[in-house]
Amino acid sequence: MKILLAIISILFFATNLQAQAKIKKTEPIQASAAPQQVISDKDKDGVPDHLDSCINEPGIASLNGCPDFDGDGIPDYQDACPKKAGTPKLKGCPDRDNDGIPDDLDDCPDAFGFPALNGCMDLDGDQIPDSKDECPNRAGPINNKGCPEMNQEIQQLVKEAQDAIQFKTGGTQLLPSSEAFLLKLVQTIQKNQELKFEIYCQTKELKTEKLNQDLAINRAATIEKFLIDKGVYSKRVSFKSFSKTDKSMPKSGNIHAKTQTLIVPLFINP
Predict the structure, then answer these.
(1) Judging by beta carbons within 10 Å of its beta carbon (0-12, 13-18, 19+), is residue 184 exposed, middle or buried?
(2) Predicted confidence (pLDDT) per residue in 234-251, tens digit
(3) What is the DSSP letter of 49?
(4) Domain boundaries of the chain, sorted by first residue
(5) Which has more confidence, 264 or 97?
(6) Which of 53, 57, 85 is nearest to 71 (CA)?
(7) Where are the alpha helices (DSSP H) in the chain?
(8) Between vectors from CA 141 to CA 139 and to CA 146, what angle results, nearest 5°?
(9) Exposed/middle/buried for 21, CB within 10 Å: 0-12, 13-18, 19+?
(10) In CATH, which of 2.50.20.10, 3.40.50.720, 3.30.1330.60, 2.30.110.10 is domain 152-267?
């Protein structure tokens, strides 16, 4: 009897082992999870460090992770003007007048100009920028602020005027020799249409300041009338008188560069 029970126990144990083996065969085998890869992004701009040209500065993906402060599409490290929007041609610098010269190097950033004149125009071609040229439409040397100089013929006439223009003593009537000289002056005025003429008169020898002033005014007016009567356009000639104590009276003739006005000073004794 004991032997029979032992045989039954052995058979039961074997059957149980076979059943467990079948269960294990039908269970799916679970694969072990692969370790997750960590992508480095030091500046937290969303561009992985291995693709980021500026790994220590937050930037934008289209510029490989580099910043563009002025938004001109040029990364700051390649931008010569990183705080002002510009063009690739000028390395990111602005050029308001589109003359090819960056505004920070352009003396005339709002007017088209030439590199030789630091971005400024030169309408009269005298190599003086219009911004520094007192006569931008008439060529002249730099020592005359860009305005034409008085030619030799005019210089000579102005020198001669002091002695050539004379009046009768104490009066406003021109001497015949003075009229001949003024006719030469008329010819010169007509040949130089761009010039205006201003006659300055000063008389010093009369007793009172008023007498000197009145005589100077009347004599200057006489010269002006003579020139106009001989065909000089009235808007091209004018006069001014100076009191005998007025030290602003010019000592010699000259051209006011900007207005192209020839100053003819006359110190005429009574």
Answers:
(1) middle
(2) 888 887 777 667 777 666
(3) G
(4) 152-267
(5) 97
(6) 85
(7) 2-26, 152-164, 176-191, 209-229
(8) 55
(9) exposed
(10) 3.30.1330.60
For 135, the token pair is 């006569």
Smallest Cα–Cα separation from 210: which of 235, 182, 234, 241?
241
pTM for the model = 0.50
- Label the pairing between strands 237-242 and 254-256: unpaired
| pLDDT digits 0-9 by tens, 178-192 | 888 889 888 888 888
Sheet arrangement for strand 254-256: 237-242, 196-202, 261-267, 254-256
What span, in angstroms and rounded, lies between the C-alpha atoms of 70 and 181? 70
Which string of DSSP letters, residue by residue, matches 208-242? SHHHHHHHHHHHHHHHHHHHHHTT--GGGEEEEEE
Tell me the pLDDT tens digit for each residue of 80-132.
999 999 999 999 999 999 999 999 999 999 999 999 999 999 999 999 999 88
Instruction: Say how many Å lie between the first and final Cα of the chain, rounded.
Output: 176
Query: What's the burial of 9, exposed, middle or buried (CB within 10 Å: 0-12/13-18/19+)?
Result: exposed
Task: Give tens-digit pLDDT for 199-238.
Answer: 877 776 656 777 777 888 888 889 889 989 999 888 888 8
